[in-house]
Design brief:
The structure holds 2 protein chains of 2 kinds. By secondary structure, chain A is of the alpha/beta class. Helices cover 45% and strands 20% of the residues of chain A. In chain A, the strands form 4 sheets. In chain A, strands 2-1-3-4-5-13 form a 6-stranded parallel sheet, with helices on both faces. In chain A, strands 7-6-8-9 form a 4-stranded parallel sheet, sandwiched between helices. In chain A, helix 7 packs across helix 8 (220-232) and helix 8 (220-232) packs parallel to helix 9. The longest helix of chain A has 23 residues, at 2-24. Chain A is elongated. By secondary structure, chain B is mostly helical. Chain B has one domain: Orthogonal Bundle (ABC transporter involved in vitamin B12 uptake, BtuC). In chain B, 77% of the residues lie in helices and 1% in strands. Chain B has a two-stranded antiparallel sheet. In chain B, helix 4 packs antiparallel against helix 5. Chain B is globular, with a radius of gyration of 20 Å. Classes of the chains: A alpha/beta, B mainly alpha. Chain A binds chain B through residues 161, 187, 189-190, 193-197, 199-201, 203-205, 207-208, 224-225, 228, 232, 248-253, 255-256, 327, and chain B through 26, 28-29, 34, 37, 41, 44, 138, 140-143, 153, 225, 229-231, 235-240, 276-277, 279-281, 283, 286-287.
């Protein structure tokens, strides 16, 4: 009990001190990333700056180690504690290794959340997932269905038959299939995340199902290989390759027309949402508890589950209209 | 020699039977366009199997071929990105591949380290180098020039250039292996190293050249692979070295060295190629695909062993007879 009291007092003191400091200067929110120099995280920082500009009176400290190690992140966290930041939003290199340092930060009244790559429950107040399995499963079917007004056959080209993420997404996709009348899932094949095997599987799909209208590949290697196979077979316009991919890798396929659109999380939105959540938590506008709803500005609200985790939104759709902007980002 | 020829006929027959079985379930598979596609898809495996076969002939093994392929492919993609013209890119891939092979060869020759250890090490080093060069970044389709991507798929006389390169390599190395002193030396060194020394052959030097050939072929295939799939990254052709060794084993190349023909290796590669291309269209569960590929390899090895045992018995009988 006394420990709790002490913690509360020190937290209150810290908050008071920080509040004083904040009246003089901005609220400091640190965005800690896996490593500096990665396009994905640079884009997240851009989103954080956007949120800061919208909120006003917020200073974003974008930082992280030079290589993706937990040790590097712990040093960065300790430095931030010493600096007296108001909030830390981290994408962790290791869920457990960084937890003690983050706990120390929370003890000093710093708001701590994790985003993208989570931290163990005791090391953060809440975790923001870019999306959820259900949202991803729905999105990959929707991407194909949106360009098939008359319905038709679609096939899924996955990673390995034992890839946990892909299997969960495909499960979720199968569940929502009845919501898309006329869309007929004819096969699920596995390219093992190897370019040559994925290419052959895509060729096999085209040979086996002459009426195939779309190949859905929820994996970066698969979607690239399938769009190459469709291009080589001269079936651009007949078969749309879609799924999850990275803009930098998919730019060629979108340009050639083999892929009309694909999806992946938007790092800008992710940085924006993480900043908004940190701000609302540290200002006391919301509390991180199961069932709570925390506002994320223009994106909506994050609803926490029993583990204090929330999903941000549907994966973001990329197509010819925005691929140029994002292909240099990640 | 007669037994070997017999074996190649058998392997050819096995491929035909396989085609018939697949055609029974999916008739479009044996259409000419589809078969050309299978040959083209198998070309990288054929090229690497030729190199691997020569290395195995000299009693060595090259596990670094897939990693050399990936490294040369990445360098080719990067050179292309830097604006180097295609002929120079091709030349650079072959030379770099040869140099990577020479590293293996020198370690085996000068330090007399077993080749399996050397190439297991260089395999990791070569793949690691790709990561060091790129920090794990991919080179993607839109970062490659159109001519770079178009060359292997250009159709000449009904076949893509990649297939022609494989056919040319088969013809060239068939002549080298049967009609040149170096070619005969590969067999001599692997068949009986001691006898080879007495005939004035340098065993280490011969092994060195086998590795250089294997590396150069891997380098050439590296460019073809990256251009065909229009993507270069660290894990290109991960695990492909096992397919290459499997093609040689199925093709009847003696792992102990000194025996085997180039046509055996090519047929072995085609056998695997037909299986790989047929499995996606015959609608077999992916959980069975690996088991089927694996069983084919085990069957081939059992068949090899049975054949060699028979050969041994004949010799013993002749010794017993007098």
């Amino acid at each position: 009990m006394s420990i709790l009291k002490k913690t509360l007092v020190s937290a209150a003191l810290a908050t008071a001190m920080l509040a004083q400091a904040a009246s003089a200067q901005d609220v400091k929110i640190a965005l800690v990333v896996k490593a500096l120099g990665i396009g994905f995280f640079e884009a997240a920082a851009k989103g954080a700056e956007e949120a800061a500009a919208e909120l006003g009176g917020v200073e974003i400290i974008y930082t992280g180690p030079t290589s993706t190690t937990a040790e590097g992140q712990i040093e960065v966290i300790n430095a931030l504690i010493a600096q007296g930041v108001n909030a830390i939003a981290i994408s962790a290199n290791d869920p457990d290794a960084v937890a003690p340092a983050l706990k120390r930060a929370m003890d000093r009244g710093i708001t701590v959340i994790s985003w993208d790559s989570g931290v163990a429950k005791e090391g953060r107040q809440m975790h923001l997932n870019p999306s959820s399995s259900a949202l991803i499963g729905n999105t990959i079917i929707k991407l194909a269905a949106d360009h098939m007004p008359d319905g038709g056959d679609v096939a899924i080209l996955s990673a390995t038959s034992t890839s946990t993420n892909q299997n969960i997404w495909i499960d979720e996709a199968t569940k929502v299939l009845p919501n898309y009348p006329g869309i007929n899932l004819v096969a699920t094949v596995y390219g093992d995340d190897l370019a040559d095997k994925s290419y052959r599987e895509a060729q096999g799909l085209m040979a086996t199902y002459p009426d195939l209208k779309a190949i859905i590949a929820p994996t970066t290697v698969g979607i690239l290989a399938a769009s190459q196979a469709v291009t080589d077979a001269g079936k651009i316009g007949e078969i749309n390759v879609t799924g999850l991919g990275l803009p930098s890798e998919m730019a060629g396929a979108v340009e050639s027309g083999a892929t009309i659109s694909f999806a992946i999380w938007n790092p800008i939105d992710l940085g924006y949402a993480a900043t908004m959540i940190s701000y609302n938590l540290l200002k006391g506008n919301a509390t991180a508890a199961p069932g709570a709803s925390i506002p994320m500005g223009r994106i909506g609200a994050a609803v926490l589950d029993d583990n204090n985790e929330a999903a941000m939104s549907d994966p973001f759709t990329y197509d010819a209209s925005n691929i140029e902007e994002f292909k240099s980002i990640f | 020699m007669r037994i070997l020829r017999h074996r190649e006929a058998l392997l050819g027959l096995a491929i035909l039977v396989l085609l018939v079985i697949v055609a029974a379930r999916f008739p479009a598979f044996i259409r000419p366009a589809s078969l050309v596609n299978v040959l083209n898809d198998t070309s990288p495996l054929i090229l690497l199997a030729i190199g691997q076969m020569i290395v195995i002939l000299t009693k060595c093994i090259d596990l670094s071929v897939a990693a050399s392929l990936a490294l040369c492919g990445m360098v080719a993609a990067l050179l292309n990105g830097a604006g180097v013209p295609l002929p120079l890119v091709l030349l650079a891939s072959v030379i770099l591949g040869g140099a990577l092979g020479a590293v293996n060869g020198l370690l085996v020759w000068k330090l007399a380290i077993p080749s399996i250890v050397v190439t297991l090490g260089t395999m990791t080093i070569y793949r690691g180098s790709i990561f060091l060069m790129t920090n794990g970044a991919w080179v993607n389709a839109h970062q490659m020039t159109d001519s770079f991507k178009a060359f292997p798929r250009t159709i000449l006389l009904g076949l893509p250039v990649m297939s022609w390169i494989a056919l040319a390599a088969i013809a060239f190395f068939a002549i080298v292996l049967t009609r040149t002193p170096l070619g005969r030396a590969f067999y001599a060194v692997g068949g009986n190293p001691h006898a080879a020394v007495y005939t004035g052959l340098d065993v280490g030097r011969t092994q060195f050249w086998a590795f250089v050939i294997s590396g150069a072929l891997a380098g050439l295939t590296g460019y073809l692979w990256v251009a065909r799939f229009a993507v270069a990254y660290v894990d290109v052709a991960r695990g492909f070295e096992l397919d290459v060794v499997a093609a040689c084993v199925i093709g009847g190349i003696a792992i102990a060295g000194g025996a085997g023909t180039i046509f055996g290796a090519v047929l072995g590669a085609l056998f695997l190629g037909v299986i790989k291309n047929a499995l996606p269209v015959v609608g077999i569960s992916p959980f069975w695909q690996m088991a089927i590929s694996g069983s084919a390899i085990v069957l081939a090895v059992v068949f090899n062993a049975a054949q060699r045992r028979q050969k041994g018995r004949i010799i013993l009988k002749q010794v017993d007879a007098p």
